[in-house]
């Protein structure tokens, strides 16, 4: 009875299969990243930093300038709406 309780459930073949599967998972997990961030999607330094370096082509605009232009555009639309309401009441 002590010899059968020392064996793993399913016998020695199951132990060998589990060990082979665990070895395959360990090898494949080192080859494939576990998360999208480590895979390079959404946060890869080689792609994200290229947007802010001299390697990027096209127009280079500071993010603060874009923020001010967007807020200025929104403000001008609000002013035009208010102006249209005021002139509509006098005519």
Question: What does the secondary structure layout of this molecule look like, with pairings?
Answer:
Blueprint: H1 2-6, H2 12-31, H3 36-39, H4 45-48, H5 63-90
Estimated structural class: mainly alpha
Q: Give the uncertain stretches in residue-range form.
A: none
Shape assignment: elongated
- What is the count of DSSP helices, taking H or I runs of 4+ residues? 5
The quaternary state of the protein chains shown equals single chain
Beta content comes to under 5%
The tally of beta strands, per DSSP, is 0
Overall pLDDT level: 75
Total separate domains: 2
The helix/strand series, from N terminus to C terminus, equals HHHHH
Which tags fit this structure?
0% strand, 91 residues, mainly alpha, 67% helix, elongated
Give a description of the structure:
The protein is mainly alpha-helical. The protein has helices spanning 2-6, 12-31, 36-39, 45-48, 63-90. The protein has two domains: 9-51, no CATH class; 60-91.
